[in-house]
Every structure is written in structure tokens, then in C-alpha cells.
Amino acid sequence: MGAMSAINKAESLKRQRDKKRKEKQQKAVITGSVPYSQYADKPIEFTLNILKITPTIEQQQILISVRDRSITNVKAAHGVGKSLVSACIVLWWVFAVGGQAITTAPTESQVKQILWKEVRRLYDRHKKQLGGVRGELFVRFSESARAYGFTSKNYDSNSFQGKHDEYLLLIQDEADGITEVIDDGFRSCLTGSKNRGLRIGNPLDCQSPFAKSCAADKYVQTISAWNHPNIAWAYKPDIASLREIGSELHKYFPTGIHRLKPEIAALILDANFEVIDQELWNHPLLQKDVIPGAISIKWIEDVRKTKFEASGFWMSRVEGIYADDCVDGIIPLSYLLDARHRYDANPEYWDNEAAKYPWRLGLDVGDGGDNNALAVIRGSVLYGVTIRPTVGDRLDTDRAATLAKDEVKLLGGEYSIAVDNTGVGAGTLTTLLLSGYSAAGCKFGESASNKQQYVNLKTELMWTLRELLRKEEFAIAPLGDEEKRIFEELSATRYTTNTKEQIVCESKDTVRKRLKRSPDAGDAVIIAFSARGGNSVYAVGVEEDVAEVGWLFEP
User: Fold this and answer.
1) CA-CA distance, 116 to 292, in Å (whole number)?
2) Domain co-membership, 20 together with 127
3) Do 42 and 148 lie in a common domain?
């Protein structure tokens, strides 16, 4: 009976504590307060004491930054706890600050299964202490203290702009996929001195709004893999690695690329340099994962083997930084920069080689909305790109023809002109032909010469330039004030593969949306590659008497 009495007494005390907690929470709702207001300016302590999460140093820095700064930008590697810290911030904002938190991500699955999965897990674990209610995509303590998530693709900037509150927190999860329209709405909401914004995600697309925000933010935070407790003990920078990578990459790895410590590698790598299962680790030097499901040694070594060190994938998912190149870009920006340096290093050589071949001109024709653009290539050198605004008075096609004629007269010597004659350019091509100029049409949507590898002509032309740059067989002369723009347009196009394993470049409309302008200058360069003449350069896609395979034409 004594034991039963003690149990009954303990249960009675528990019921009394639960009752008092509920009464306190109900009173807080009525008075407009929140249960943990003492932590309103102590996000780290709230995370430790209430949510029972021990944040890493980087996560602590994010918590403090969100508390103190109007907007926080965080570039993070894969699996380092960015969604967990965001979830902690959401719950801190609702139950300690007493404000409204709104989160978004590019897709529905990202909203439900990444950040809000963490929010639900943490809330459910501490539901009695926190109070309130939750659904799949909301947590509510009171009308003023609540949070919810939505998919950014379902909202335009005006929908986002309608959200205002004295204590407003906005979070962009997987921020690299957020469009500029949504980001504009995000910034327009954060008008109050007590409003806060957090952009956080993997740095994948070097031309995304998130990338631009990070580049402009001197307080931007970067979370690499190397301080994560699952792996920090096993790695150190290897200064010898600097001899194995190009000097242009040294700025990213001033002390070398992180590699397994030799004594650790000897214990966990098998004969094929694969990481053995952690269940077989039994040496005192070895530490098993502290946080299951987070980034791991095995994952990093798999990436090193399959994606290679210093690749775009490695830079974004392991180092947590934007490389010069976008992960899935056809023409990497670094290739273009190298080609510029290549010309400057020995202009005499490149000019002498180029002089053996005819001039090749590529003309992209606009009409009001887009520019006229003319690119000039000779041999394996891009010598210039001219950009001319259009008026939209139905005379722009004639102006484009005049632009090409004037350039031919200025250059002198043998030449050929390729014109994008898909739309308004057809009139320009006709004008040039009737005037006796050597010109031919180039239609990006036509079949490639190598139909097995490329889905259309544009993809083939772009890949041709990519390979010439990669093999260091192409150089770029100074392009003047428009050089940055031209490089941006050439490196803006992404690619995928289809079910036939063909390479597919994305549409001009998609690139236009990303750049907020038409890539006319970049297209002109690609069109020039279809003009006849060159050395190691294929002349593919030209009408008239071009060989089916598209081999080069000698002068």
C-alpha cells in the first residue's frame, strides 16, 4: 500500500504541475504575452534550456545574428544543421519573442519535409512546455505569436508584401532556389526595426538572388563541413594539395584542401579507398557520428571520389561557398576568365594564328525589346562583341544588317556572317544576301550534327565552345566595358540530360528570367561559331553548302 500511495502522490503532483502550466499558458494568451519571454533576447539559451539542443559554434553565430541584424545570409554545406537551427529560430520567435514567423522554400516538398519537419519534431518533443497547437505547416500560441510556412512558387511578391507585423520574422529556406520576385517581396516586408529576415541554403547557383545578396553582405556567414562534430576530428588541411589544383583555386583553399588525417585514413579506408562501415570501427582514435543523419565522413569521401575535389559540387556541398562556376552551367565562368588571361599572356601568338583564317561574324537580331548584337571571331579568338539598342520601329532589322556591313568593311579580308534567322532576323539575312554579302542563317532549334549527343544546334554550338575553352584551344581578346556582361550571358545557360541521354541546354526565356534581360551578346558569340571558317573549330549548323558533319572551312 505504501508503494501505491507514493505512486498516486507522484501522479497527483504531476497533474497539478500540468494544470498550473496550462493556466499559465492560458493567462499568457489572454494578456498577449508568451511563456518564455525571459528568453526574448537569448536565443542560444532558449535553444539549450527549452529545446534541449546544443548548437554548434556556427549555429550560435546564426542565432545571435538573427537576434541583432535585420537580415542574415547564411551559405551552408550539405547536412550541417541549417534546417535544425532555422527550426529553433522559428520556435524561439513564437514562444520567446512572441512574434509572427513566416517561412518559405522553392517547392512544396522542401517546405513540408525539410524545415517544417524539424519544426514539427521539436515542437512535438516539447509540446507540454511550449503550449499552443500545431498543424503540418503552422504553430500557434496566440494570434500574435504564431508561425506558418508556404511554397514560394504559389505566391507572387504582392502576396508576400501583405505580411507586416511589429515582430516579424521571414525565413527563406533553400534560399538559392528563391526567385527574384519572391526575394523582392521578402525585402519589402522587413520595414520595421524589430523585423528580422534569414536567407539560408546551399550555394549552388552563382547567379541567383541569394548569391547576389551574399556577395553584397559583408557579414555573410559560411558554414563548411569541417567544423561539424561528425567529422571535425578526422580532417586537416593538406598543404600539398595546392600543388595538385590550379593556382586560380588557391584563393578558396589558402592552407590546402581538407583531407583525412593519415592516421585516420589508415584505420577507416579499405583497399579500394572506401570508408568501412562505422559498425566495424573499434579503435580508440575513431569517433562514430555524434549526430546521426547529418554530414558524415563516408559521404565526404564518396563526393571526393565521384565529384572530385574543388569541383562545383564540392565547393557548394562541402565547402559551403559559391565557386566562380555554376554547378550545371554549360560554359563555366572560370573557362572564360582563363581564356582572357590566355590571350593577354601571349597576344602575338594568338593574333598570328588567327590571321590564318577568315573572320566569322555572329549576328543576333532584336526588334524593340531586345538588342542587336554582333560578335567577331577569327580562328580561335573572340575579338569583340558590339551591342546596339533597338527602337521597335520595324527598322531594327535593317540597322542590324548595317551593323554587320560596317564591321565587315572595317575588318577587311575574307569573312562569313551567320544570322539568327528564326524570327525577325530572317529579314536581316535577306538584306545582307541581296546586298551581296556572304551570309547564312543559323537556327538554334534545328537538329544538331551529332544528334545522338545533343538535342539541338544551340546545345551543340555551346558545347563546342565549352570544349575548346576546356582544352585551352580558344582565347578571348579584351572586350571593353561590356566584357563582364558578355561573360555573364555566356555562363548563364544551364544544361540537363533527357531520357535519350542527350545534352539539353535550357531555353532563352529561362535564361532571360534569370538575367532579367535577353542574353543577346552571349547568343551572338554562339551564332558566330556556326559561321564558316576556323581551325580546330567546327562550323556547324550553317545553311547553303556546309558539309553535313560541319567540318571546318579553310580560307
Assistant:
1) 19
2) no
3) yes
